[in-house]
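To: structure subgroup
Subject: Chain for Friday's discussion

All,

I'm putting the inputs and outputs inline so they're searchable in the archive.
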Amino acid sequence: MTGRPRPGPGRGWLLRLVIAFAFAQGAVSMARPAVSYRALALGADETAVGVIAGVYALLPLFVAVPLGRRTDHGRCAPLLPLGVLLISGGCALSGLVSSLPAMAAWSGVMGLGHLCFVIGAQSIVARQSAPREQDRNFGHFTIGASLGQLIGPIAAGALISGQGGALGRTSALALLVSAGVCAVALTSLWRIEHRRTTDARPRTGGKVPVRTILGTRGVPAGILISMAVLSATDILTAYLPVVGEHRSIAPATVGLLLSLRAAATIACRLVMTPLLRLLGRRALLTTSCLLAGLLCAGVALPVSVPVLAVMLAVLGFCLGVGQPLSMTTVVRAAPDGARSTALALRLTGNRLGQVAAPAAAGLIAGAVGVAAPFVLLGVGLVAAAGLGLRGEGRTGPAPAGSEPAEGRTEQAPADEVVSDRSSRRSAPGGCPRDRHADRSPRSGG
């Protein structure tokens, strides 16, 4: 090790990762509605469209944990181009095939590619972020997802047109364009993973059982909070148009309201660091989930469009907190050598939520009314606030003598490194003490 005051990599890798994620997520957000329109053009009914959409989330459930285990014991970066290629291939072939089973299969490939990219990217952020930087870096990382979710549907809407029986052709065009958009992400995937942090991974004797990971305090809470927040986002996107129909709100206005929600989420993640300084992570997570729950339930009220716009803006801001902080919660709580697997389990929970939440919302909406799912989501988010209040498991520094973990690699915060070095005697010229003089682990004193 050298005597430089900041041993960790710079933040250029994070910017490149955010850019790549924005293109990959934008392609997926553009392709998913295009797949539904393409299926309708091929004669699918509502049930068939639901099955095709569900395969996107179901197929990755079977490979998330194996991918996480592979990442725990190897490099993360190869998963990124693999994910991009799978997303691009799934998008393009979904636009070229003319049978519904083939569309379902390629939709699953698209979901698998998205899973590969996200597991690899989240694991890189966890490894290459100092403990105090994890919340900020995960917040900035998820800006890429928010940008893609903001722009993707707008681009799909601009390309897809059902006029004159052209729905099949225009939806296929949107899928081909989305494949090209995803391929652009490859241009940012250079020097993302640093060898030093890869080499600093702990060498574990074997695999940590999934039951042990899920039994670690903080991991279930992070998974359930993430599920609640993602389900709220998905149901809001799917059912706000239905609410708009019942209240005679124009589709264009509904689109603007959803865009406002997405923009507020981006704004939240840009100011995550000062919010954490002001409130602390536990209070911020709990307050945001509680407010989001109340606002979700409030969407069910027959309010005017301006009031609904304000509610959705605040709701989007609150929903922007849950995903990055739940990532940090899982990373900090997970056992050493199993952080990527824990993140994969979190993504598995997200996928389960994406499958179960729309189904439950559809049943409730059919039995009680279209506003009822928002009340259910409100209850779920209030419960998530309670989970955030309970705590996160082990968030403090590693015990003295322990090896640095993926999320706490040699990239200690700069002020801690300077403080530690200032307490030691340095040779003239500022060179550090001979590294062979003391082989004992670093202790607090």
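Points worth raising on Friday:
DSSP finds 17 helices and no strands in the chain.
Residues 52 and 104 are 5 Å apart (CA to CA).

D.
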